[in-house]
Structure formats: structure tokens, C-alpha cells
Amino acid sequence: MMLDEQQLQKLLRIKRFEQPPPGYFDRALIEFHRRQREELLRRSATLIWWERFVSGLGNFRVPSYAYGAAFGAFVVVATIVGSGLWAPYQDTADLSANRVVLSGPEAQEVAVNRLALSGNLDWSTFHHTASSPKVVPVIRPSQTALPRYVLDGRPVSYEASFSF
Amino acid sequence: MEDQNLPDDETLVRRAQNGETRAFDLLWQKYSPRIYSLIYNMTANHEDSNDLLLEVFAKAYRSINGFRGKSSFYTWIHAIAVNMTINFVKKRGRRFQLSLDDLDTNVQNDKELIDLAATNSPIREVDLSELQQRLNEAMMKLSVEHRAVVTMFDIQGMPHAEIAKILGIPEATVRSRLFYAHRQLQNYLEEFRKK
Fold first, then answer.
1. Which residues in chain B (98-127) have CB-CB distances under 8 A to chain A?
2. Global pTM?
3. Does B65 touch chain A if contact means CB atoms closer than 8 Å?
4. Which carries the bigger pLDDT value, residue A40 or residue B150?
5. CB within 8 A of B87, min separation 6: which ones?
6. Is B143 helix (H, G, I), strand (E, B) or coil?
């Protein structure tokens, strides 16, 4: 005859009587302490610090007033930047004006004048005609070539030598 | 083993979080038998249970500062134990031997066992140590997830809701796992009877 549900449950409850030997839990606690001490000695200080840090993060709670303070700080910064009292990207804006390629004759003139006024424009590198719509820097091949050095009267080259 | 005079868990956890090792020892004293029983009934091996028990408490000790008290300490440490044991059993695979603890001599006087032996059930046909062996072999044929549910419900007497919290699954899943596990156990024990 097959066990019914109740009989099975009663049978399973017998497993509660399977017990470790007497005094087992006290001995296991001593073993637990021993392992803890060993682990503490084995672990580096950095690891211990890291574990405490990670564990501390779990407990970290952002105080409720921090959200208000952060929003307030954002409003103040936005007001200062928005009103133009402080423009942290002024220099960068000027630099971006040095980007040369512009379309249209007016834009070309503005760009060229700006560079010329700032003294950054090397006229010799530009091939500029009235009909050309863009300002195109002309770079000679010699400017892009790798430097060549002469040692002991013989030129050094990256090309393969065929003189054995 | 559980001492009625022990402070409540919340106090002990707070003290342990403040670095008082004695408080953690009291938590050990309170929960180690239950945790051991949970692991033992899932592994059916005393040596593995011993190792896992120490590892579970070591992990709890390391993580005690991260315990926020959203669940009870009881649920928290049971969840650690179940997860670690499930991982262990899956890693161990089929390579294991039963290494059973002795049955407490009080089992002979257990009313439920006496009642059961009196009925027309397989229990009449086997002695206690054989019954223990068969029960454990049948348990080991269950998947580890089913074994966990049977251990907590049938052996440890936990309510469905508590098991659901520990395993992080809906209560309905706990009930369905129990249903299928019981069916399987009934079949396994029937096979033994026919031998």
C-alpha cells in the first residue's frame, strides 16, 4: 500500500530525530572561532578595509536634506552660468573659432580675418584665390615626411636595404 | 539548545554590528542547530554539513554590517544557508555518499512513529535504521530545490510564507514544489516497499 500524504509527512518528521553527536555545536563554535582568527591573519589589510567599505556602503543612506541641498546648488550654479557672470568655456569658444573650413565668401572672410588678427594664420600655407569657395591649407609633401638622419655619412632609411 | 533568556535577535544583531563577538556567539547558539538541520537534510552528509555550517556563519559574520533588518535575522541566515547549500549540492553533482547522523534514542517513543508503525504502511516492514536510510535515499532523489522545500516544511515545520520569503519565490511556487516533491517521495518509497 502506498503512503498517503499524512503518513508521508509523519514519516518525514522522523528525520528531526537525526542529530549530530552531543556537544557537537559547542565544538563547532570553537572551530568557527579558530577559522575566523586564521582568516583574519591570512587576509591583507587592504582586503579587510575593502570589505568594511563595501559593507559600510550597504548601510549608507542619503539624508533627506541632501536632495534639497543638491537641487539648491544646481539652481545657484545654473543662475550664475545663465546670467553670464561666469563663462567657463570662453577660451574654448575662441579656439573653436579657429576651425578654418567654412562655406560661403562671408564666412571665409570672417574666419580668415579672425585668424589673421590673432596672429595664428600662416599665409604661406594657404592657396587662396577669389574663385575658391573654401580656405584650404596646402601642405607640402616634405612637411609630412618622416625626418631623416645621417649617421656616419650614410643615410638611415626605413626602406629595406638591398646592399648585402 | 535555544535559550529563552537570550536577548531578541534585533538587539543581538545590533551588538554584533558594533563588533561585539559575544553577541554573534549567541546568534550561533540560537540558530546553529536549525541551520545544521537544514543543511544536513539537504546534503545527507554530516561532514559536508559541518563544513557548510561553518561557512554559512562565516559569511553571515562578514556580512552582518550589511544586514539592514528588512527581514528577520532568522529569514536572512536561512536564505544564506539555503543558497550556499544549493550551490554546494549542484557543484558536488552525483558524487556523494550518505553519512548520516544517529537517530536520537527518543525516536523509539515518538507517538507519530508508533501510530505510523501500527498502520498498514511500509514502515511496518523495516527497522528504524533501514527506514532512515531509505528516507534519506528517497530525499536525495529529489532535486535540490524540492529537497529544500520538503526540509523546511515537513522536517522543520516552517509555514509556506516563511519558506517563500527565504527562497525569494511566490507562495504558490512553494506549494507546487511541495506537491510534486511529495508525489515523488511517495513513489520512491513505494518502490522500496516492493523490493
1. 100-104, 106-107, 110, 112-113, 115-116, 119-123
2. 0.63
3. yes
4. B150
5. none
6. coil
User: In DSSP terms, which residues pair with B45 in a beta bridge?
Assistant: B99
Our CA-based measurement puts residue A14 at a distance from the nearest CA of chain B, in whole angstroms, of 7
CB contact under 8 A, A3 and B119: no
Interface confidence: ipTM more than 0.90: no
Nearest CA in chain B to A10: B112
User: For residue B185, what is the nearest residue in chain A, using CA coordinates?
Assistant: A8
Q: Cell for A83?
A: 546670467
Second CATH level (architecture) for the domain B1-97: Orthogonal Bundle (1.10)
pLDDT tens, position by position, A107-137: 666 666 666 666 665 666 656 566 655 555 5
Q: Give dist(CA A35, CA B28) in Å, integer.
A: 15
| Domains of chain B, residue spans | 1-97, 104-195
Q: Does B194 touch chain A (CB under 8 A)?
A: no
Provide the shortest C-alpha distance from residue B111 to chain A (in Å): 10
Class of domain B104-195: mainly alpha
Please state the rounded mean pLDDT for residues A21-27.
91
- The residue written with cell numbers 542547530 in the block is B33
B1 pLDDT band, cuts 50/70/90, is: very low
- Contact of A8 with chain B, judged by CB distance below 8 Å, is answered with yes
